[in-house]
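A reminder from the course coordinator: this example appears on the midterm review sheet, so study it carefully.

Given structure:
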């Protein structure tokens, strides 16, 4: 393996990162996902890394109440797509949130609804969103006005 190639062994543990992590922000911007509300949200953000410590994907969530969380800002940078990293990341995040007692998980997506459906998420109407989801920063962001709302 060349020195500049990442170790392809994925650690499924999520490692906490800050909202302004440069790699995280760049990955979101590269795919046109919103970054304007990262610092203002009550989000917890994570990276999934290879065995050498290189981030391969990012995700986050906001705790809305004791039983509800809003998953947000999930992205795998282009060089690492198609390797199952997104699935590993979502499995780890959903497992963590459900173990923490979250029975209502919500997210927005512009075009990845088939991916999230693999984890049991279902598309719901924005009109059916509970008030606690409507109160999230992403619900009112212009960048998310055309996004599909999903619930697990």
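Designed residues:
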């Amino acid at each position: 393996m060349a020195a500049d190639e990442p170790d392809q062994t994925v650690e499924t543990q999520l490692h906490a990162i800050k909202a302004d992590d440069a790699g995280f922000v760049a990955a979101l911007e590269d795919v046109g996902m919103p970054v304007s509300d990262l610092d203002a949200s009550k989000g917890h953000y994570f990276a999934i890394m290879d065995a050498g410590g290189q981030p391969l994907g990012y995700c986050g969530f906001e705790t809305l109440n004791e039983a509800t969380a809003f998953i947000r800002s999930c992205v795998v940078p282009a060089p690492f797509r198609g390797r199952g990293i997104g699935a590993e990341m979502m499995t780890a995040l959903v497992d963590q949130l459900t173990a923490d007692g979250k029975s209502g998980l919500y997210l927005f997506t512009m075009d990845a609804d088939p991916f999230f459906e693999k984890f049991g998420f279902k598309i719901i109407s924005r009109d059916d969103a509970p008030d606690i989801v409507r109160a999230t920063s992403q619900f009112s962001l212009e960048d998310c006005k055309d996004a599909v709302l999903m619930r697990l």
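Strands lie at 10-17, 43-50, 55-65, 68-75, 104-109, 122-124, 148-151. Residues 60 and 72 are 5 Å apart (CA to CA).
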